Amino acid sequence: MDPPRSPIDNSTDIVNSNAGTNMGALILSLVFLLGFPGNLFIIWSVLARARRHSVTTLLILNLAIADGSLMGLTPFFVVYLIMKKWVFGRAMCKILFYLCLVNMYASIQLIMLMSIYRLVAVLWPQRVSIITGRKTVLRVLAVLWVVVMVASIPAIIFRDVKNGKNGTNVCEPAHNHPSDVVLQYMLELVIGFLIPYVVIVVSYICILRRLRQTKFRRRIRSEKLILAIVLTFCLFWLPYHLINMVQVTWALYPEKGPAKKILKKIWQHSRAVTSAIAFISSCANPVLYFFAGKSYIRREGLAFMARLFEGTGLDSATRKSRQHSQNSRDKDKDADAVMLKDKDRDSVANSNSNSKPVKNGK
Predict the structure, then answer these.
(1) How far apart are the first and last CA of the chain?
(2) In the structure, what pLDDT confidence band is assigned to residue 175 with cuts at 50, 70 and 90?
(3) Which of 50, 149, 218, 256 keeps 20 to 30 A from 179, CA to CA?
(4) Which residues are CB-contacts of 70 (< 8 A; sequence separation ≥ 6)?
(5) What is the H or E stretch that residue 171 is in?
(6) pLDDT (tens digit, 9 = 90+) per residue, 22-70?
């Protein structure tokens, strides 16, 4: 007996679109070949080659773990698109899409933490070590992973194996009501895009304003690197969220008609391609790191990635700022000591001059 169809016809039909299927499979194959070994190399560089694990290094490590895990799932989806049917069972259908959402949430939340850390380092450089201590950062990272795991539960609830129009099993959304569509995709939009990007934009606006107000206007290499990561994530995930909004609009459309059919056609034929494009963001970061660390390659060899993370960023800038402040304080102390010595010499000279008449009187 065939499994019951959902009360709303929300079949994506991605495996029935030859153009979308072939393009999606090609993109995912290239993404896997480039992104999976690239992120593994980043993880190895941080764990085996980095001399110290700063805040930036820990965030980069977790971002590489999230991206690498997402890259590791791509072969399943390549097989799905090529075979045009789901052969991995109902449990894997739910688990794989759940893990995809977890790593998507984790990636953007980690990028948001990078922006917040830079904001704190620029505005309060003397207190950044207290606010962002190693134990505090590890706790924040643990909480972040727990939150994204909980927020991704709808991917398990609203995903199931169904009997497609061509008689084969497909792993597709299982929405029983239009409100399910709104809940799932609006949650993805708010948690995975709107909130983190508002925080990121506000953080960089505050950073730029502060840098313009100070005499310290030297460009920090990691600022460009992190900004490139932010823009790359936005570029590749924006089409995915736009298609989600098209599907939400379709689900909320009051009555059947030409407009509703057009909306459905748009998200049905675009889902496979936009989802595959979203995966590109996870393989783009190793490429960005490579170009950012070109100056380290000849000197450091395979350790160039670790030296890039150690030698750039506001970690070093903040450390230099604190060192400069400490040196200033040390200079002040030395000056005070010199002044005290001068005073002591003056007092000794005065006492000697005052004692000479008494000695002559004897």
Answers:
(1) 128
(2) confident
(3) 149
(4) 99, 100, 103, 104, 107, 279, 282
(5) strand 169-173
(6) 888 899 999 999 999 999 988 988 888 777 777 888 888 999 999 999 9
Q: Which two tokens stand for residue 231?
A: 């823009």
What are the backbone angles phi and psi of residue 169, rounded to the nearest 5°?
A: -75, 140
Collapsing DSSP to helix, strand or coil, 152 comes out as: coil
- Residue 310: CA count within 13 A, CB half-sphere: 15
The H-assigned helical ranges of 152-213 are 154-157, 178-189, 195-213
Q: Write down the residue that tokens 């739910």 correspond to.
A: 94
Break the chain into its structural domains and give their ranges.
Answer: 14-312, 315-362
Question: Residue 291: which pLDDT band, with cuts at 50, 70 and 90?
Answer: confident
Using one digit for the tens of pLDDT, what is the confidence trace for 99-156?
999 999 999 999 899 888 888 888 887 777 776 677 888 899 999 999 999 999 999 9
CATH superfamily of 14-312: Rhodopsin 7-helix transmembrane proteins (1.20.1070.10)
315 CB-near residues (< 8 Å, 6+ apart): 54, 55, 56, 57, 121
Q: What are the respective helix, strand and coil percentages of the chain, to the nearest 5?
A: 80, 5, 15
